Amino acid sequence: MNTISENRPSTDADAMHDACFDLARGIAAYTASSLVAGLARVIGRHPDADIANAFNHKQVASKRWACDKLFETLGGHYERIVIVGGWYGILAAMLFDDPRFSPLRITSIDIDAAVETVARTLNQAAGARFDTMTADMYAVDYGALGADLVVNTSCEHIADVAGWLARLPRGSRVLLQSNDYFAEPTHINCVPSVEAFAGQAKLASLQFAGGFRTKNYTRFMLIGAT
Ligand SMILES: C[S@@+](CC[C@H](N)C(=O)[O-])C[C@H]1O[C@@H](n2cnc3c(N)ncnc32)[C@H](O)[C@@H]1O
After folding, report:
1. At 105, phi and psi to the nearest 5?
2. 4, 159, 161, 185: most buried by Cβ count inside 10 Å?
3. Among 53, 67, 110, 197, which is best to mutate for testing ligand 1, by the most ligand atoms less than 8 A from CB?
4. Which of 187, 211, 181 lies closest to 198, judged by CA?
5. What's the gap in Å between 221 CA and the centre of ligand 1?
6. d(Cα 219, Cα 119) in Å, to the nearest integer?
7. In 3D, which of 130, 31, 133 has the Cα closest to residue 90?
8. Which residue, among 32, 54, 33, has the nearest Cα to 43 in the 3D structure?
9. Within 6 Å (CB) of ligand 1, which residues are found?
10. Cα(8) to centroid of ligand 1, in Å?
11. Are 81 and 148 spatial neighbours (Cβ–Cβ below 8 Å)?
């Protein structure tokens, strides 16, 4: 006789997924956080998305660091922020959720078509203030986008940081992150130090340069203009 109810998950993985979904919804209800509600929506609608990796404590800490230094360096008001290599739209969600920031619009660009719907689900509460593009960041017409800040926290994932920066209109304000996590196979262009990162980017003006130590690697960040 089959004693398993039709509503009960059929595998341990299903059970874990359902538990994560319930927990995220509970935390969202308790904290009234639209960001956590977005994470719960992603867990429910996109069970295959690697959202636990994208929102792990190290990722969150380094994006929190980006928000803090961005606010200290350039303030919180932006007409349009363009984030390239935006992945699941975590940084966009954190900027929308942070009361220090009032971006009118954030556009998240990624070459991977699979991340687009996940980023939209996560940022659903932002409505028309959030949009996405599936594109190679080297092929985007940045002049047409008219961003007042371009963010790339995926510099370790692209082969030619200076070549990409050269595509931006001269004087573009940028926030860039890379790291020294050479052991990760998808990192094709790590740097050993923030000085090496600054040498790679060759920004015309540099307002912030620093490092953020995590257990396995140091993340480097530059804020300035091309
Ligand atoms: C692992 S994720 C993000 C890593 C980064 N350290 C972070 O936390 O923001 C890197 C993203 O860059 C994207 N990417 C890589 N090359 C790209 C390109 N040429 N144009 C646009 N997106 C790209 C990948 O598809 C992926 O979603």
Report:
1. -155, 140
2. 161
3. 110
4. 211
5. 16
6. 23
7. 130
8. 54
9. 59, 84-85, 87, 109-112, 115, 136-138, 153-154, 157-158
10. 37
11. yes
- Could you report the per-residue pLDDT of 6-59, keeping only the tens digit for each? 555 678 888 999 999 999 999 999 999 999 999 999 999 999 999 999 999 999
* Cβ proximity of 154 and 174 under 8 Å: no
- Taking only the tens place, the pLDDT of each residue in 136-159 is 999 999 999 999 999 999 999 999
State which CATH number among 3.40.190.10, 3.40.50.11270, 1.10.10.10, 3.40.50.150 fits the domain covering 57-225.
3.40.50.150
E strand or H helix at 72, and its extent? helix 57-74
Beta bridge partners of 130: 106
Q: pTM for this structure?
A: 0.94
Distance of CA 30 from the midpoint of ligand 1 (Å) = 32
**Ligand 1 mean position, distance from CA 88 (Å):** 10
